[in-house]
Amino acid sequence: MSTHVVGRVTELPPGERKIVLVENRSIGVFNVNGTYYALRNACPHQGAPLCKGRVTGMTLTAPPGEYKYGREGEILRCPWHGWEFDLTNGKSIYDPHKCLVKTYDVTVEQGTSAAAVAVEAPEEEEVRIDTYPVTVEDGWIILHV
Fold this sequence. Notes:
The chain has one helix spanning 114-118, and strands spanning 3-8, 17-22, 25-32, 35-40, 54-60, 68-77, 84-86, 103-109, 140-144. By secondary structure, the chain is mainly beta. It has a single domain (3-119, 129-144), classed as 3-layer Sandwich (Rieske Iron-sulfur Protein). The radius of gyration is 18 Å and the shape is globular.
């Protein structure tokens, strides 16, 4: 599994997304209420750029005659045909057992630089590192592919 720096936490506030090209794959990284999720940017229906779709909520189960809306910011709607997917797990709202989008792990690394996160030195090599005092104001968003 390889890791890729997406950007700083402050660059992707809640409700926002960033589409990145990683290892020849277009991937959308979303901040859903402070938790980061990543999906392949291709709708399984006809290959639309899924991650450019509208992020919304959905109607939830409620007693007859009542309407309950929830999960705001967790549902991604395909821009071409309106197919809806759960951002938290990539599953289709309509058919979650058969239709899904590839998901990727995302972590937030605190107190490191992008260079330190993105590059790991082999254990056999002796590595000389110069250190300097650094103030870290936010973490890095890391995509694991």
